[in-house]
Amino acid sequence: MTLTLATVGLGLNLRAWILLGPHLHERFDVGLRDYVLLMALPLLVAALARLPVGVLTDRYGARVMFPVVSLAGAAAVFGLGLAESLPAVVAFGSAAGLAGAALVVGGSLVSRTVPYGRRGLALGVFSLGTVVAVVISAASRGLGSDGRRAALVLGVSLVVFAGLAALVFRDPVAAHRVRSPLRTCVEMTRLASATSLSVLYALALGGVVAIAVYLPVYLATAFHMEWFHALAVTGAMVGLGATARLLGGWWTDRQPTPQLLMVCYTVAAGLCLVAAMNPQRLTVLVIGAIAVCDGVASGALLALIGKAARADSVGAVMGATGAAAALGALVPAALIAGAERVSQSHATAWILLAAMLLIGALYVRAHGLRIGMGLAVRFEPEPGPTAMTVAVVGEAETHLGAAAVVARLAELAASDELVVVYGSDEPARLWPSANVLVVGLRDRLPRHSVVGVGVAPHAGTLGSLAAPLGESVEAGEVAIAVTPTAELSGVAAELSSYLRADRVLRVSYTPAGGAGLHEVWNRDPAATTHW
Fold first, then answer.
1. 76 Cβ partners below 8 Å, 6+ apart?
2. Which residues pair with 509 in a beta bridge?
3. Degrees, nearest 5: CA angle 87-208-310
4. Are 66 and 105 spatial neighbours (Cβ–Cβ below 8 Å)?
5. 478: alpha, beta or left, given left = phi > 0 and alpha = psi -120 to 50?
6. Residues 331-360: pLDDT tens digits?
7. Angle between helices 148-168 and 2-17 (to 10 degrees)
8. Total-model pTM
9. Whether the Cβ atoms of residue 11 and residue 136 lie closer than 8 Å to each other
10. From CA 125, how far away is CA 123, in angstroms rounded?
11. Using one digit for the tens of pLDDT, what is the confidence trace for 196-225?
């Protein structure tokens, strides 16, 4: 019930978000360049709103924030339907961009309420709200071509949904910490702007939005297609992209994602080059294939975000990445407007888009270990005594669950003195620069120094290594000892003895439950653990 209602709510809000387009075209006959620039305004509003809405969702929950966002969208939609002048339509249509924050609220709700093993697919189902928006758009044609009555009916629907959301939604919200929402927004902005992952999110997550917003006018101007037919084709393309998100989410629940992303970006880049050749008969098919690639990639990334983020910060993480997506959807606007002004041809815009997608594919190939680790949001543990902890991790646990394992180890490092013993049989993994835990923890713990050390299974070597490892831990560093899998238990036991560890934990990963910590040994037999 919760997932179904959230999906419908997303569809209603997404329809409100892009409602400005039909009013510009059918009521005021706005030209291509002005249309592209004006349609960028609700995208910009959404980009600015998503992060603070996500932070507030972490604090107050979807039960509060979904109605707030929907009522704000309803007010803008009512104004849009009643406005008489172009400036008023643009003002209310831009304000409707607030409804674009529904993706963040609903995504946070799904991430907190759906079990880890089904979360990727559930987020894909939630993304079908885009299809709901397409259906609403098609049904509203019968209410009048100028969109006035359709806007008023949509506003009433949003008000009804807000009431249902307040009654039905129940998502667990952690007790908020002392940090203010404003401080959290500033910290997340700084964090998102400092990582190139934001560009990756923008490329994929903004792709389907860009198709929904700009494809109708592109088809109408470049190929002289009637507006109704252009809208119908756009609806089909958006539906394809949204359905493809299901595949991306399903895949992320079961398989590593970097190679899938690389294939999607590479194929989409090639298709953009085909579109640049302007083969009119193939354009719709090519754009449909691009929508599928964007849908699969965005579904996978949305699933990675929902699975990697902590429950008490998933709103902030989705807000930051959602803002990047909205800004990414502005890129086609700039390219279309610039290409028309400079070269009088759309081919330049397609070529530039192809170059950006290819750069994204090359980035994924070069940084595959980092993909899926998520933003390195600072974890603030509850006050308590610090323990010297040895965590034992096998390589099998990181093949699919690297992000989840790294997240749990990062939580440990924030509260304990931590030494990780990692078992790997690949020679390259003995080098710290190639080790997934070293790379992942350096991203998740930007304020910590992470040190990787190869441990050869020879008698007498561990004693000499224990002293520098102990010094590293006392200096606040996270030490990772990499050893062959067959020696994992023995190395962990000896290091625990040399370092006088307080406890030893084994890290496990299952696709259904994610990463777990299991106590193997504790210096105090009466001690209890909250893991």
1. 16, 92, 93, 95, 96, 98, 99
2. 515
3. 105
4. yes
5. beta
6. 766 766 666 566 566 677 788 888 888 988
7. 150
8. 0.83
9. yes
10. 5
11. 667 777 777 777 777 777 777 777 777 778
